[in-house]
Prior knowledge:
Helix content is 77%, strand content 0%. The chain is mostly helical.
Amino acid sequence: MDTIDWRTxxxxxSRQKIVNKIMESLKKxxxxxxxxGINELKRIATRFEERIFADAVSQTExxxxxxxxxxxxxxxxxxxxxxxSSIPAANNGTx
Length: 95
């Protein structure tokens, strides 16, 4: 039986790239301003990655959970944008 933990196989550079991708996604979907805002987004991205890294039982699960969260964030953002843009259109004929 292979007892090597998958976490030992994942290089810190790979994890940093994933944190950077999470950061880019957060920048698109969360308001921030200035260096303090960027630092807060970085803290959020890092905490999220660390939690998934610790909880996942395999590298596949780790990548899947991160991908699903980012996809969910993207979908919620698109739904919110779609619902706000459709409100004025729905009211156009009622005046």
